[in-house]
Amino acid sequence: MAPTRRLLVLGAGAAFMPPFASAQSRSPLPGGGSVAVPSPYRTKPDYPTYADRADGVLVAYRNWRSTMSGHPECDGMIAVGLSERFQSLERFASTGRAALSIQWSDADRIPGQAWDGNEKRYAAERREGDGGPELIQQLAVHRVGFFGVYDEPAHMFAVQHASGLNIAVWLYNKHGGTSGGRKLASRIASSFER
User: Fold this and answer.
1) Torsion angle of the four alpha carbons 138, 59, 24, 182, in this order, in degrees rounded to the nearest 10
2) Which residues contact 144 (CB under 8 A, 6 or more apart)?
3) Partners of 193 in the β-ladder
4) Pairing relation of β-strands 149-160 and 165-172?
5) How far apart are CA 32 and CA 29, in angstroms?
6) Residues 157-172: tens digit of each pLDDT
7) CA distance 133 to 159
8) Which residues contact 82 (CB under 8 A, 6 or more apart)?
9) pLDDT tens digits, residue range 82-134?
10) On the CB side of 115, how many CA atoms lie within 13 Å of its CA?
11) Single pTM value for the model
């Protein structure tokens, strides 16, 4: 078979592979068990992270890197912990939030306000989901682009899953938003092994 045809056949076969089939790594959870962390999220990036700030939580970052200012930044984060180790889903989300980069940790502040100590913040909405109780929060991540600064729409999605895991996902809307967070959480929960 000609090399070009062989590549076409391989490319067509890749379309039938299940999502994240070869693009995940298994990571241990604090307190026991393990989960598969989907790529492009990494639990051990090359640059030092804030993961140690989130006690009892497995943290994985999407594209964690150093910026020109010297502060680390990322394109999203996943936090996973055993439900039994946290009093509530809200407490878990707050614990996971401690590992966020500077811009992501301030993303719940509604843009366009003066910095006077009385800034309004996006509220987290609690609802019942198919996998368990959910928290959803709108975010706006302040970014510096080539032509200026802008706010990138994003969401935080957290679930206290029936599998016994708390999972929180912070991601840009362009990477899936709430529905993308729900899919990632579902895949992580289904990969859980005690």
Assistant:
1) -30
2) none
3) 34
4) antiparallel
5) 5
6) 999 999 999 999 999 9
7) 6
8) 29, 30, 31, 32, 33, 56, 164, 165, 166
9) 999 999 999 999 999 999 999 999 999 999 888 788 889 999 999 999 999 99
10) 1
11) 0.85
